[in-house]
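Lay summary

Proteins are chains of building blocks that fold into shapes. Our project writes down both the chain and a compact code for its shape. Here are two examples, one after the other.
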Amino acid sequence: MTDELFDLSGKRTRLHNKAKSEPLNEKLQNDYKAFRNMVTNKIAAAKKKYFSDKHENCRGNQNEKWRFVKQILNTNSSNEDNQNIKSRSHVKSLTEDQNENS
């Protein structure tokens, strides 16, 4: 996670706590929801870029490509990178990207 995303997540949490303490403040509720959605979209874009870059680095090297797929599927729990990967939906999108590029 980048420093920017980390800071945005902290600000989102602070805004959430403030919105929770003032449930009748409609402007604050709307500001929180808009900020939350923006942060969620930035995190999703960062994840997509991370996996796309990792996939791009595997081009032309089948062994590396399979190592990457196994990492995403979490088949080797001793790998440190597996602790950061929680979604398998990236496999589907990467497979679709690869099929489109072939």
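And here is the second example, written the same way.
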Amino acid sequence: MLLLSEAERCLSLLGCSVYDALESSHYIHREWNKMVREGGSSNDFQRIYEGADAVTDLPCFNFWEQLQEALPEVKVNNEKLSFCFDM
């Protein structure tokens, strides 16, 4: 049974393409491993989240300031640290 966070469930119901910890570890783990080890640029964040409508969970929580800088259209929910891109 796959458990979704409330944020992911709600965003998915709205038709958003959501990247959470599962998607990040499955689809973009190499990019995240590189950014954790070496750091990432704004271009890196823009490239790996191209096509995503929202990002939740880890590892993005550790990089929320860089994500917000790289993607100024991102709306940050500081209470739960969820990110929603313009749809």
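What can we say about the second shape? The chain has a mean pLDDT of 77.
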